[in-house]
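Q: Sequence in, structure out?
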Amino acid sequence: MLRYSKLVNPHNESHSYVRTIFEYLIIFLGIAPMALMVNWVLLPHAFVGGGLTGICSAIYYITGGMFPSLFPEYGGAIPVWLTTFVFNAVLLLIAGLTVGWRFCIRTMMGVAAITFWYRVIPILPQPIIDDPWLGAIIGGFVFGLSLGCVLSVNGSSGGTDIVAMIVNHYHDISLGNIMLFCDILIIASAFFLPLPESMKIEGENPVYLQIKRVLYGVCMTVSYTAAVDWLMTRIHRSVHFLIYSSKYDEIATAINTTVNRGVTVLDGTGWYLKKSVKVISVLVRKPESSLVLSIVDEIDPNALVSIADVRGVFGSGFDKIKAK
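A: Exactly. Output:
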């Protein structure tokens, strides 16, 4: 039980190095599905999504055939992995000089990972999902789940995240609004890009096809945003325990040492017997709740336990307090 607690509890300082390695591994592997969706769905369909990926995709479409000797395997287009690396390197340099290098450390890992996966995963000539609407929905959802895994360990894939941090450092504008504004501009730019042959339909108005192309990008962005929100809500869900037991001291000590969570013991009165009782109050992450229950069951199977879902917990050991 103690060994399990060290894995589920991210605040055990004696195992911080193990936690750090685990989180970097999540960042590296978690970004792989993002690259898969870009190289197997987004680029073959000629979609333009939000963020830096959308900008790099647009450059890939525009430069198609311009550099056949430099990038023969990409049809002469400037590859997404190269533009992703260059843009992120410049943004990280600016962020390091303005926001601080501490913010950039994990982002550097994310940038290295996404550049690696973009480079090693081949771009398919035909998308794995033929229907563009279905491709936008499924591709966006998988992209969002992947991004959510990275964000859950305080990682980042770079791009507009860095831009948002830099702007937020100097102006009182929320990160979400900055990123939304960037996404709108990038997706809307798809209307002015040359229409690829794969999207051209004989007899159809080109303007109508360009509008559809923009809507594909909107659909993909909405899908991945919903996926990120869905995953992050479940990962960061917390619960509040109220435990009534005559063995409160043993249970409180076990929770404090094994789960490594702060425990508060409250004074109460059992009204039926007019007897003083002690009530244990503790807040834990949802994945830790089974460990708390096993502790209570092992020490006092007759204890009365109340569990309530908590919308948000801010402070030491939980989420940081954000005013905006």
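The two ends are 39 Å apart (CA to CA).
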